[in-house]
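Figure 6 in text form: structure in, sequence out.
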């Protein structure tokens, strides 16, 4: 098994999830390998530790409600020793075609498909998805990290192609509203807030999400979801996709699972899940995160049923305090009511 460095010197507040030798030994036993045709129940909530090309023919048919694909992009990148090499765009399109066509039979007629890429991979992705699916949108994620380039514009965005199999698909727009702090406090003629709400926590507007996502940071060392995977997706990004394009109990599948972000968020949000990851260490990290998700259901940046802007921790804390206070007050009222009721019974 390849090592994911646990030896690095890290700052005291560094929350990066790593694996000890004992943990690896424990989690390896939970990984599965496919060697024949499977049913959805056999792979449900499992991490398949194999080359995707070895398992494609063994996957169940018509089981996927939501397919999230975050493949290696068309750039040279080292995934814990396995290097994906940049290739001409036409070859990259052929490579996508080679697995996407085999994933199509796994999809339900009502399924949604999301495929990620950077600007270099996006053209090839569009070319392939247009052949097979109904392309609904291209989301641009401003990921706000990465080195500045001296002779080019800093590469600061990723694309996420949103497709469906048919015109019959789930889209829960109310579940993915964004809570924005209001700067310009416009009011109507009677002085009432226009499109925003004055609350005890501050002045906010709840907006419907657009196809540009500027509220999501790449996981970094002080975030509890962070690992050493070079291209780990943020839980908040997966939460938007899973909440919008699936319902509780639906099956979410990820053929390039990495360290398990899709599986972890699906689990936190009450969906079934499965994924394939070629690298054993990454697959073990996914298992470790899945165990942690049993205790910790929070998704950073998603609180109280809404998505919050970047750098809004203070506002989220204030809302949490008010929600907790309201819950306490409700409990106290209920217990008072039951005391009074039992006294009344006594008096009768
Ligand atoms: C872009 S990363 C996915 C990261 C993931 N979304 C996460 O948040 O952790 C792509 C992953 O695909 C894996 N991979 C590459 N080729 C593969 C193959 N043929 N079969 C299965 N996994 C593969 C790599 O090891 C890498 O972890």
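Output sequence:
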């Amino acid at each position: 098994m390849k090592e994911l460095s646990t030896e690095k010197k890290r700052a005291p507040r560094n929350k990066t999830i790593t694996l000890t030798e004992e943990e690896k030994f424990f989690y390896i036993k939970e990984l599965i390998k496919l060697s024949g045709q499977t049913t959805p129940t056999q792979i449900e909530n499992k991490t398949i530790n194999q080359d995707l090309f070895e398992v494609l023919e063994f996957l169940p048919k018509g089981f996927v409600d939501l397919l999230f694909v975050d493949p290696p992009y068309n750039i040279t990148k080292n995934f814990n020793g396995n290097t994906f090499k940049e290739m001409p765009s036409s070859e990259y399109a052929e490579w996508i075609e080679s697995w996407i066509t085999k994933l199509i039979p796994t999809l339900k007629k009502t399924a949604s498909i999301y495929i990620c890429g950077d600007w270099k991979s996006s053209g090839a992705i569009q070319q392939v998805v247009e052949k097979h699916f109904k392309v609904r949108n291209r989301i641009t994620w401003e990921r706000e990290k990465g080195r500045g380039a001296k002779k080019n514009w800093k590469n600061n965005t990723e694309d996420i192609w949103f497709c469906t199999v048919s015109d019959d698909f789930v889209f829960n727009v109310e579940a993915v509203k964004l809570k924005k702090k209001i700067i310009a406090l416009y009011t109507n003629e009677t002085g009432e807030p226009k499109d925003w709400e004055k609350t005890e926590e501050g002045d906010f507007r709840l907006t419907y999400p657009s196809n540009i996502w500027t509220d999501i940071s790449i996981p970094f060392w002080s975030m509890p979801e962070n690992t050493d995977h070079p291209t780990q997706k943020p839980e908040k990004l997966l939460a938007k996709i899973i909440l919008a394009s699936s319902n509780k109990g639906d099956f979410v599948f990820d053929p390039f699972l990495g360290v398990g972000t899709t599986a972890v968020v699906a689990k936190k949000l009450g969906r079934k899940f499965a994924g394939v990851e070629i690298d054993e260490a990454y697959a073990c990290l996914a298992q470790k995160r899945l165990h942690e998700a049993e205790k910790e259901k929070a998704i950073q940046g998603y609180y109280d049923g809404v998505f919050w802007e970047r750098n809004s921790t203070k506002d989220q804390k204030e809302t949490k305090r008010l929600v907790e206070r309201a819950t306490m007050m409700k409990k106290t009222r209920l217990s008072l009511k039951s005391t009074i009721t039992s006294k009344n019974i006594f008096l009768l």
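Caption detail: The two ends are 73 Å apart (CA to CA).
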